[in-house]
Amino acid sequence: MDEATALRYLSLADEASEKLDEPGGNLWADRLEREHAALQEAFDWFTSHERSAEALQLAARLWTFQFDRGYGDEGRRWLSLTLAAHGTEAPTAVRATALYAAGMFAFRALDQDQAKHYFDELLQIARTLGDESYVGRAYGGLARVALRRRDTREVRRWSHEALSLARRRGNEAETTTAIHMFAEAARLDGNLDEARKFYLENLELNQRLGREHWVRAETLNLGAIEVLGGNAEGAVPRLRESLRLARESTDRFLMPYVLAWSARVALARGERGLAARLLGAAQAQTERTGLAMDPDEEPEFQKGVAACRSVLSAGGFERNWDDGLRTSDEQSVALVDRFLSGS
Questions:
Q1: Domain coordinates of the chain in residue numbers?
Q2: Whole-model pTM?
Q3: Would you tell me how many other CB atoms lie within 10 Å of the CB of residue 189?
Q4: How confident is the model over 39-97, as pLDDT tens digits?
Q5: Which stretch of DSSP H or E encloses residue 272?
């Protein structure tokens, strides 16, 4: 690859990053998927030629694509490398985006200290730039760090700051993370009615804004709330819809959650072997993405595993679990689709 080609792919990433969270964003993600190898080559060209500014820009522009499509290890490596190479002397919007992205990947890698470091630096840069949008992102990131500590009071404090800021700015899109985090805190505290209210509010807001990632996520979360509330059958329409959306968008981050909550429905129906197989498939897919589950999701996943172990023989559990681990992404999606469709 030469310089002109690398710059052309950087231009593509710039253009796509503006479209990924808008209606039709899946088409842009598909285009990036088709060009993934070339984008990797462009990143390597920038880093090998000590073009740290362009490498940082490319990493900052592609992180949401890498996140949703399950390239977590790649995204974290790119951001860690470029942030270190570019230094801290440039408080720019590109660095701010990269810091937020790096914090999100560190959060998903269970690296609490590193995540907090990135979000703290983001807050400092955002204030230096006078950019309240990035201040709000930093607040949202720090709320996630608090959630991993299960400090729901701190989650609410940061989320309140972010929500107040976004509403004062009149920016509805910037309220979505805060509303989601209020739901997460309520769910972690066991207040399912409050969590449902916030998830539903966020779903309806993002449907109106056409923000597809959030629509997929909150649809699934509403299904999870039904399972947690003892209404497994009531969860099925939400899970079926989240499966459809995740499938259409090739959302590899979300799919393991769909499998895990569908396994809980299978347990409720007495389909124990299927439940263990779906959980094994969810485990394998999560490992492939390099993106750890949410703090409120991982304990529920382990509860599902424990429940399967308690109702199956040791051999029966291991056989179905191992089958799930070996199942390809396409096969596991087809399996859960048949299950949720009742065929």
A1: 215-343
A2: 0.92
A3: 16
A4: 999 999 999 999 999 999 999 999 999 999 999 999 999 999 999 887 656 688 999 99
A5: helix 272-289
